[in-house]
Amino acid sequence: MKIGISCHHTYGGSGAIATELGKALALRGHTVHFFSQAAPFRLGKYSKNIFFHEIEAMNYPLFESPYYALALASKIAEVAFYEKLDVVHAHYAIPHAISALLARQMLEEKCPASRCFRIATTLHGTDITIVGADASMRDAVRLGINKSDGVTAVSGYLKDETVRMFTPRKPIEVIHNFVDTSVFRRLPGREPRELLGIGTEKVVIHISNFRPVKRIGDVLAVFEQIQQRIPATLLLVGDGPERSEAETWVRINGLTSKVRFLGKLDDIVPLLSIADLMLMPSNVESFGLAALEAMACGVPVVVTDAGGFPEFVRQGVDGFRHPHGDVEGMSRSALSILEDDAVWRRFSESAEQHAGQFETALLVEKYESFYRKLVDEADKAAADQ
Q1: What percent of the chain has pLDDT over 70?
Q2: Is the pLDDT of residue 26 over 70?
Q3: Is the CB of residue 197 less than 8 Å from the CB of residue 264?
Q4: How far apart are CA 316 and CA 333, in angstroms?
Q5: How far apart are CA 371 and CA 28, in angstroms?
Q6: Disulfide check for 127: which of 92, 149, 187, 225 has CB 3.0–4.6 Å away?
Q7: CA 21, CA 366: separation in Å to the nearest integer?
Q8: What secondary structure letter does DSSP report for 229?
Q9: How many Å apart are CA 31 and CA 36, to the nearest integer?
Q10: Collapsing DSSP states into helix, strand and coil, what is residue 49?
Q11: HSE-up of 181 (CA within 13 Å, CB side)?
Q12: How far apart are CA 328 and CA 281, in angstroms?
């Protein structure tokens, strides 16, 4: 098949999953065209089956923002017509699904609707729980969902939230996020520790975009209790609006030698390979891809009992789940893993093994089947005309 993938290029679960999906599809012989403002951060090596189309939105003095959604629609229409795309997969209802819908309308005179590309939309969370919750955007999100030919959600939690908020006219299929365990695996060696000047102390890690929903203050509060009992270092990977406040808190509380702000990094596997525990105390996560990637590297996790976490983090087996804001409970759980090497090994082995249930190849097959169903339905509609 010839597949277009429209996604954000920046750090985050949606961009990572969209890019990894496209790369996996290309390896399976499909032709994949990426549409984004810049090359997706995980695109990596070249492939004969992968093409990237940068969206350049013009600026016009009369308007405050560039025409990104329109430029995206135009580019999708151009590529879809000349390359005969079978499916355009929009990651996020806004703006990607809306742009795909507009692109198909642009092709109406050249391509009958029943013979034009199918639109698959994957909901990742923010487009529903934040953008969709805004009254000014609700109808646009609903349009993107209802006019797509097929819709998936990355977790059962997100599917339920979408149904509750939008009562969509078509079924939503759950296809969980995935992890490539040939890439996300625990690497041997101490080089990352040596480069960071970390000795034999325990290493706790948190990876996010530092938005308020990630509760960076809780990460620091839990770590403060951990380091009071055992020698430990906290690695904070990522950047965002809460970073400055977190840095100030660290300085005030005298933890500058124990907390490392590493910023945005493309290759996180070496850091996960030296980590003993991941903390993700978010208010909610539509799935929580960073936790799954940590588990694949043998890192036990302490997360919140919210969103998609219960769908892959087994309580007391791969890690622990707590209500958000339960700093005391998360601290106790973290220490119960870190203070006993035998317990840590048991959790680590279980986490790594369970992550294999979300292996890329297994979930990519589901997307392939999903695409084929949409194309078959279109072919049947064309034959009936």
Answers
A1: 94
A2: yes
A3: no
A4: 9
A5: 14
A6: 92
A7: 11
A8: H
A9: 17
A10: coil
A11: 16
A12: 12
Mean predicted lDDT score pLDDT of the chain: 91
**What is the model's pLDDT at position 114?**
53
Q: For residue 291, report the phi and psi dihedrals to the nearest 5 degrees.
A: -70, -40
Which residue in 139, 127, 142, 55 sits closest to 95, CA to CA? 127
Element housing 358 (H / E): none
Least confident of 114-123, 154-163, 242-251: 114-123
Residue 309 backbone dihedrals phi, psi, to 5 degrees: -55, -45
3-class DSSP assignment, residue 275: coil
Would you say residue 215 has pLDDT above 60? yes
pLDDT band at 356 (very low <50, low <70, confident <90, very high): very high
Structure tokens at 153: 């959600």
User: Does the pLDDT of residue 151 top 90, yes or no?
Assistant: yes
User: Rounded CA gap, 147 and 170, in Å?
Assistant: 9
CATH numbers and ranges of domains, the chain: 2-178+360-384 (3.40.50.2000), 191-358 (3.40.50.2000)
Q: Tokens at residue 36, please? A: 């984004």
Mention every residue, 6+ apart, whose C-beta is less than 8 A from residue 86.
1, 2, 3, 117, 118, 371, 375
Angle separating helix axes 327-338 and 341-355, nearest 10 degrees: 100
Helix axis angle, 341-355 to 289-296, nearest 10°: 110
Tell me the CA end-to-end span of the chain in Å, nearest whole number.
23
Asked if residue 63 has pLDDT above 70, the reply is no
